[in-house]
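Its record is retained below.
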Amino acid sequence: MTKSQVKPANILLTLKENKEDNVTTIKQLYNARYTYKQSLIGCRTKLQQLMMLLERNKYIHWSRCVEDSDVVSELFWTHPNAIKLLNAFNIVLLMESTYKTNRYRLPLLEIGCVTSTGLTFSVAFVFLSSEQQNNFIWCLQRLKELFITYDGLPKVIVTNRDLALMNSISIVFPESYHLLCCFHIQKNVRAKCKMLINFLDAWDVVLDAWEYVMDCGDISTFADYACNFTMFVMLGLCFLNVIDTWIIPYKERFVKVWTNKVMHLGQTTTNKYV
C-alpha cells in the first residue's frame, strides 16, 4: 500500500479492518514505512536516489555544482510530456517559489503554463541553493532550451516581486511582457495598511480605493484613482511605501489599463487556488 501511495492513516485502517485484534499503532506504521523506503534506497544518498528516479522515469534534468566541488547547488527537472505541452501552449508562463517543502530548506521554484482552456500545468521544477540572480539566470537558461523555436518563447511571464528573478527574466527573456501577481500584491497591501487602520469603515474604504487602482481600465481615470488612494496615505491611514513600492515603479505590470494590452489569458496571479 505504501508503494501505491496510500496514506498512512488509510493503511492503518485497512489493517485493523482485516484483523480486528490488530494492535498496530500509527507510530509503528511510520517506522515500518521508513524501514521499507530505506531498503529501496540502499547505500545510495538521497540525491543519488533522486537522480536514479529521474533517469528511470525518463525525466529531462540538469544539475550544477558548487565551483571546485561535487556538491550540487541547483537541480532542474521536467518531463518530456510537459515539454510538448509547453511548446503547444507557450503564451503565458507562471513562476513561483515555495519554501520549507524539504528537510534541506532549499527554495523550490515551480514553473507552470496555461492551456487555451485556462487550465494550468507544471512545466518544470528547480531546487535552488539560493535566490540570487546568478541562480535564476542558470535556471531560466535551462528553461529556454526547452522551447523548439525562438518564436515559441513565452509572450507573458507572471511572477511575484522577487527582484533577482525579475532582473533575470529581463536578461533571459527580454521580449516577454512581465506581469506581477495581483493576489500577492493585494495581500501585501492589506498587511501594510491594516496595521494602521483601527476602524472597520475606514478599512473598507481603503480596500475599495485600492481595488479601483488595480481594476482601472482607462488611463484617463487612473490618476484620479491613484490620488484618491494617496489621500489615505496623507491622513496617516497606511504606509507611504505602498505608493513607492507598487504604483510608481510597477503600475504597468498589474493595473488593468496596461495589462489588458497583452494577451495573458486572464492569468494575473501565480496562485493556483485563486
In short: The chain has three domains: 8-42, 52-180, 182-259. The chain has eleven helices and seven strands.
